[in-house]
Specification:
alpha/beta; Rossmann fold; 2 domains; six-stranded parallel sheet; 18% strand; globular
């Protein structure tokens, strides 16, 4: 098959990692895969470095023009983001082939947008969700939805990188808790900050690292950090490339999201044997089921603090959690299996044409 993956997001987050991993595994199975992406963003640059053909554009005019001129040359056009499926739906009469969309969010569809959202979701030939939480809204709107969970691939450990980071942030001799999440409202850094403030009242042998890009909650987060007097116990470390190396430094991974379709950063924690504390938002209960982590109610900073403290103190609990989580992620989130499921779906779409 000749496949075009479309992802127009800025930055480098879970969806971008999944797009590139999907492309890599599909190419390995003998298919011709190209990428349409935003010009000069991380996904475009990394895909090009990996030897993929990348079609880069700065805005909607360039994307539309390319799709109108070249869309029919691809058997499958796969929108990995919501803005891409909008353009595919609008241009469908001129594109030919099969259209596929992967929903990576669990946000509810507002009443005001419901009819338009239903229209564009019905325009694609196959809609995929990465979790039951992400599938809930399209299924409520009576859109047939396949479930293909995200995958994770271990990367070789760059010990020198991890050591440089540990020196830069003075982690030696400290228990390390961390999150990997942009400073956005749906990730709820405010609850996380308050939870760490509670933990600080119980112990002072730790540092909490907030790894992630800036977002719409940055200024309020910085102000709350100052108000709570967290000082060096809570460090905003910003976006870090090759963040996978840094999981080896962590004693506990924490995610406080209010909305989370799946949580690819949790999969990283599973893969690198870091015990997880998370809110019970979206798809996170699916991931942490059967003793694979500790769940707390959304927005409950007291429960989050208790869970973090418990994992820091209970070695046997940490071992049990990481053993279950490691076995699960290898079994259920394998990259080859993910790509094979997509390829089988693509073929079903083409067989119906």
């Amino acid at each position: 098959m000749k496949i075009l993956q479309l992802n127009f997001e800025r930055g480098w987050r879970g969806g971008e990692r999944q797009t590139l991993l999907c492309m890599d595994r599909m190419r390995a199975q003998g298919h011709e895969v190209a990428l349409l992406a935003r010009k000069d963003e991380a996904l475009a640059m990394r895909a090009r470095e990996d030897g993929f053909t990348v079609h880069e554009f700065s805005g909607v005019a360039g994307v539309s023009n390319y799709l109108l001129r070249h869309g029919r040359s691809f058997d499958i056009k796969h929108a990995q983001t919501a803005n891409m499926v909008t353009w595919l739906a609008a241009l469908k009469p001129w594109l030919g082939g099969g259209l596929v969309f992967t929903r990576r969010t669990a946000f509810p569809v507002s009443a005001r947008r419901e009819s338009r959202t239903r229209w564009k979701w019905r325009r694609v030939d196959a809609l995929v969700a990465i979790s039951e939480a992400a599938a809930a809204e399209p299924r409520r709107l009576e859109i047939p939805t396949a479930l293909i969970r995200s995958a994770i691939k271990a990367r070789p450990f760059d010990e020198a990188h991890a050591q440089r980071f540990a020196r830069e942030f003075t982690l030696q001799g400290q228990r390390v808790l961390a999150t990997a999440a942009a400073l956005t409202r749906e990730k709820d850094p405010f609850t996380l900050l308050r939870a760490v403030a509670r933990l600080k009242q119980e112990r002072d042998d730790f540092v909490f690292l907030h790894l992630g890009a800036d977002g719409d909650a940055k200024e309020e987060s910085l102000a709350l950090h100052k108000e709570l007097g967290l000082g060096d116990h809570y460090v905003f470390a910003g976006f870090q490339s090759d963040v996978e190396n840094l999981y080896r430094l962590m004693d506990v991974f924490v995610l406080s999201s209010r909305e989370e379709a799946l949580g690819s950063s949790v999969l990283d924690a599973f893969l690198y044997a870091v015990p997880v504390v998370a809110s019970d938002a979206g798809g996170l209960p699916e991931l942490l089921a059967d003793g694979r982590g500790l769940l707390c109610p959304v927005g409950d900073d007291a429960a989050l603090a208790v869970a973090m403290n418990r994992l820091l103190d209970d070695r046997s609990l940490r071992a049990a959690i990481t053993e279950r989580a490691s076995a699960y992620v290898v079994r259920e989130h394998d990259p080859v299996a993910m790509a094979s499921r997509y390829l089988a779906l693509y073929q079903e779409v083409l067989d119906r044409k």
